[in-house]
Specification:
Layout: E1 5-8, H1 17-27, E2 31-37, E3 41-42, H2 50-62, E4 66-71, H3 82-94, E5 99-102, H4 117-125, H5 128-134, E6 137-141, H6 149-159, E7 164-169, H7 172-175, H8 181-184, E8 192-197, E9 208-209, H9 219-228, E10 235-237, E11 241-242, H10 249-265
Parallel strand pairs: 1-2, 1-10, 2-4, 4-5, 5-6, 6-7, 7-8, 8-10
Antiparallel strand pairs: 2-3, 9-11
Helix pairs in contact: 1-10, 4-6
Length: about 270
């Protein structure tokens, strides 16, 4: 089954977006998920100048890279953060993205705000007209307290909009949820509209996310589940290494290239 397969620029956390784009292009990929995660990886951000953002747009065109998604994590449980998320939607629209990715809470930042599913659903419903106007889908990521497909399906069902679906992060389901993704994803297989392909090594709460095929995630079964359910959702590769981070950008480039080769060996067209 043909599908979009790209790379999350967050793989290059700590390095400039320009170097990330060069590495992704050199590995052979044609799609990129741009990262605009506040306080973590601000590769693109609403506060950057128009001149800078247009320059990045031109660079991607020169590299034949398509920005199909934007990782615009905001705390969707907090109505005060709505303005920030609206700005991220506009940023995603500027780059022509079809998807905007967000966890329910604030990814990678200390987050004390909690809310019941009903309140959360109402908060998200308030941005649906903007998503519709931009012809964009919000995909909620497996992350933090909302760490299984079963939990996110409950939220997506409450929202009840085709503009809001699930981003199934294969390693987060293990790290945060303590579940096997190949089993848990069956709880929400028809609501999965996007997938972060991320491998995992070590104990459950050990921060170790290597190149695809270097960990213990059963991608073969995951791919079979998608195929059997005729789910052609896009893939975005995310590699977050260990807490110490990669040795240098060369290690990131090798991991991205290794992930490309792994998917080619699995029969995917990239």
């Amino acid at each position: 089954m043909k599908r979009i397969i790209g790379v999350n620029s967050n793989c290059y956390h700590g390095y400039p977006i320009e170097e990330a784009l060069e590495g992704i292009h050199k590995a052979g990929f044609r799609y990129v998920e741009l990262t605009a995660t506040k306080g973590w990886t601000e590769h693109v951000f609403p506060t950057q100048s128009f001149s800078y953002l247009t320059g990045l747009k031109k660079k991607m065109q020169e590299l034949s890279l398509i920005p199909f998604a934007l990782s615009g994590h905001c705390n969707l449980m907090d109505r005060e953060r709505r303005k920030d998320f609206v700005e991220n939607i506009e940023l995603a629209r500027f780059f022509g993205c079809d998807y905007i990715v967000s966890s329910v809470g604030e990814a990678h930042l200390e987050d004390k705000e909690t809310a019941g599913n009903e309140i959360l659903a109402e908060n998200i419903k308030s941005v649906i007209p903007l998503l519709e106007d931009a012809d964009m889908m919000l995909v909620l990521e497996i992350h933090g307290e909302h760490s299984t497909g079963k939990i996110l399906k409950e939220i997506v069902d409450l929202i009840g909009s085709s503009q809001v679906r699930i981003n199934y992060d294969t390693a987060n389901a293990i790290f945060y949820g303590g579940v096997k993704p190949e089993e848990d994803m069956q709880n929400c297989i028809h609501e999965i509209a996007y997938m972060h392909l991320k491998d995992k090594r070590g104990e459950q709460r050990e921060w170790d996310f290597p190149a695809l095929g270097k960990g213990t995630v059963d991608f073969t079964k995951i791919f079979e589940n998608l195929e059997n359910n005729k789910n052609g959702c896009p893939f975005s590769i995310e590699i977050e290494f260990t807490k110490e981070g990669p040795e240098d950008i060369g290690e990131i480039n090798r991991a991205v290239a290794d992930s490309y080769q792994y998917l080619k060996e699995k029969g995917f067209e990239i």
